[in-house]
Design a protein that fits this description.
By secondary structure, this protein is of the alpha/beta class. It has helices spanning about 15-30, 80-90, 110-130, 140-145, 170-180, 200-210, 235-245, 260-270, 280-285, 300-310, 325-340; strands at about 1-5, 35-40, 45-50, 50-55, 60, 70-75, 90-100, 135, 155, 160, 185-190, 215, 225-230, 245-250, 275, 290-295, 325. The strands form 4 sheets. A 7-stranded parallel β-sheet has the order 3-2-1-6-7-8-9, with helices on both faces. Strand 8 (about 135), helix 4 and strand 9 (about 155) form a beta-alpha-beta unit. Helix 1 crosses helix 11 and helix 6 packs across helix 10. The radius of gyration is 20 Å and the shape is globular.
Length: about 350
């Protein structure tokens, strides 16, 4: 099978970059011929780099025509104009993945709130008109697309196998010692250091509750009372901190930045509760008192009150959407095959 994967950004460590890389890796491992279409090239991957005109807010318009004949053309996120535009130039059955649909209306930025819903409605209709099959990652997006008379497949993001395996105890203790931490005595933030991710909310809650927190992620160094900034870490060191923490905190401020939350899956795979703001997919994935707690976005006082409870909290049930990448890629593979075989998917 010849497959085209399309996303404007495939390099780096963000959620969609990870998805692009993992799909490429596992599909090529299974013997498929895969080409990534993006705005930048990545070492070790077959990327067709497309020149673009970048317009704020982050709209990337292709400046060249691309062509190719593929059996499946997979658009990894509908929201990108680049993705939809490039995919329309390629021949092949189209699988369009929708992520964080109809979320810009709650964006903290006024421009996004005013213009976003208009753009979203336009790009949703354009994506659905293009698609032979549609996928989503959370129940919220599924409900949105059903209002457009679509019938999407629900496929979560996956995790690398290492998150499901035991970690060496000596190594875990070594990581604790490296950051001068005590087991079970800190809350952990894992993710990009970005204002929409709510890092400042986490820090304020730590100060108010006198609770210790550790921040793992790429971006500007973060400082504050009771805060340990660990920076970017390899997977094993990150797992060591998850295992040693009392909980993982996801204090995001916008629906837009939590279309799924790989960080939540990582925590649950290690049986750690998640304390999250009630935004995006987290509203559907976090079950109060079962696998974590929810609080109103931006409400650092509520977060401060929840933090002490996390020490005594146990994950009673791991969500069924916490899966290894091998299983997730198999789900996409099934959609590809069904799209090719089922006449109902003909346009």
């Amino acid at each position: 099978m010849r497959i085209a994967l399309i996303h404007h950004s495939v390099c780096g460590y963000g959620g969609m970059e990870i998805v692009s890389q993992r799909l490429y890796y596992y599909l090529t491992k299974r013997g498929y011929e895969v080409t990534l279409f993006s705005t930048s090239a990545c070492q070790g991957m077959n990327v067709r780099q497309v020149k673009v005109l970048k317009i704020k807010p982050d709209i990337q318009i292709p400046l060249e025509k691309v062509n190719g004949d593929y059996e499946v053309v997979h658009v990894l996120s509908f929201l990108s104009y680049f993705n939809i535009s490039v995919s329309s130039m390629l021949k092949g059955k189209k699988v369009v993945s929708f992520l964080a649909a109809k979320t810009l209306g709650t964006h903290p930025n006024l421009f996004y709130r005013l213009v976003g819903p208009i753009y979203e409605d336009y790009i949703i209709k354009k994506g659905l008109n293009l698609a032979n099959a549609v996928t989503v990652k959370n129940l919220g997006d599924k409900k949105v697309l059903e209002k457009y008379n679509a019938n999407p497949f629900l496929i979560p993001d996956g995790l690398d196998d290492v998150y499901f395996k035991p970690i060496n105890e000596d190594f875990r203790q070594e990581v604790l010692k490296r950051f001068n931490l005590e087991e079970g005595e800190f809350a952990l933030y894992v993710g990009r250091i970005h204002k929409l991710k709510g890092v400042k909310v986490f820090i304020k809650a730590l100060q108010l509750s006198n609770f210790k927190g550790v921040i793992v992620g790429s971006g500007d160094k973060v400082e504050g009372t009771n805060v340990v900034y660990a920076g970017s870490l390899d997977d094993l060191s990150k797992i060591a901190l998850i295992d040693s923490s009392c909980c993982v905190v996801i204090p995001s401020l916008s629906d837009f930045v939590e279309g799924f939350s790989i960080a939540a899956s990582e925590a649950w795979a290690r049986r750690k509760p998640v304390i999250a703001s009630s935004v995006g997919a987290l509203k559907y994935r976090v079950k109060e008192g079962v696998n974590g707690f929810l609080f109103k976005p931006g409400d650092y006082k509520a977060l401060a009150n929840i933090l002490p409870k996390a020490k005594d909290s146990k994950v009673k049930e791991i969500p069924e959407d916490v899966l290894p990448w091998e299983m997730v890629v198999s789900m996409y593979e099934d959609v590809y095959k069904k799209t090719l075989e089922d006449s109902n998917f003909e346009k």
